[in-house]
Amino acid sequence: MLLIEVTNAREVIGQRIGRLGSRLIGKVVDAEAQVEKALIQELETAFRDFGIEARIASVEGASLIGRSHLEVPVEVRELRRVRNAPPNGD
Question: Is the pTM of this model over 0.70?
Answer without folding.
Answer: no
